[in-house]
Amino acid sequence: MSDPDPDAAGAANRAAAFRESTPGADVEMAYAGLDTFLKADPRDPDDLDDVDVAVFGVPYDGAVSNRPGARYGPGAVREASAWWAYLSEYKGALTNMRTGDQVDFDAFTVADVGDAPVFPMDHEATAESVTAHAATLAARTFPVMIGGDHYCTFPAFRGFAEGSDHDRVGFVQIDAHTDTVSESPVFGTDFHGSSTARIAELPGVEYDSVSQVGIRGYESPDYFEFAEETGLNLYTMRDVEERGIGPVVADAVEAAAEDADAVYVTFDVDAVDPGVAPGTGTPCPGGLTAHQALEAMEVLGTHDAVGAVDMMEVAPRYDATEGTERLAAYLLVTFLERKFAT
Description:
Blueprint: H1 6-12, H2 14-21, E1 41-42, E2 53-58, H3 73-91, E3 94-95, E4 102-103, E5 110-115, H4 123-138, E6 142-147, H5 153-164, E7 169-174, H6 195-200, E8 210-215, H7 223-230, E9 233-236, H8 237-243, H9 245-257, E10 262-268, H10 290-301, E11 306-312, H11 323-341
Parallel strand pairs: 1-5, 2-5, 2-6, 6-11, 7-8, 7-10, 8-9, 10-11
Antiparallel strand pairs: 3-4
């Protein structure tokens, strides 16, 4: 056997040598590299014992009642998140000029396990896939899901409860719509308008552990009576306008956490006014400002009971400015910053 070619060995090591010897070569531009969330290392779902946060996507919009396109949400939000990864890598520790806090993204580790398999013509198989992946992540670390339409929150919530082995899980829903339709003559029992109804039917979940923030537009007749009868903690946009987003969200998460082992947070991007975030399937005027949305995530990120979070209904093709996915990414970054890095 001949001796290795020294020139070939040298050529094989040139990339590593260049990176080691060139200042700035370790900084990856926001638009370069793999599109994982916050430029996190790609991992298998069962290889998460040394990470604080695991992200997975669900590129599924087979349960929408209006405009499709949320299947492209996970990829768009991941790509948008690269900006904050670049800033933290380029500048090191950062000052959050909104809050005045010093933020060190190196204080926690993030892994991206890719997307759960989806079955466009089979919502039941898709739901089982989402449940399995959420349970696997919840058994090991803090799970973050990027959707996908809001139906996917139901199987993710179910998986979180099973994987974390919690008996009672509260639910905070930031949303324009209540998603409490038990059954539709058009869409059946399993679509993005029924996810909260399905969650409330799970073992260990009652409506008095569900909090909804930002609800507006039109709902079923006598919805206020329904909320009062079931104990649902309802905070409409009028409540937000009159009391302020911070106090409302603080009350919402406290109500959901009472007598619960943990709280699952879902953020439907249509909670934000479509003038700010038009890239969604069911836009509804009169929603949260970007400032209010960010403050909501700041409050949620400081609450110890919150054990999982998702970002849903980003449909990037309806926003030519790419602002919706940028805001969605920033909302998740803000939550994780408050939860792990400040």
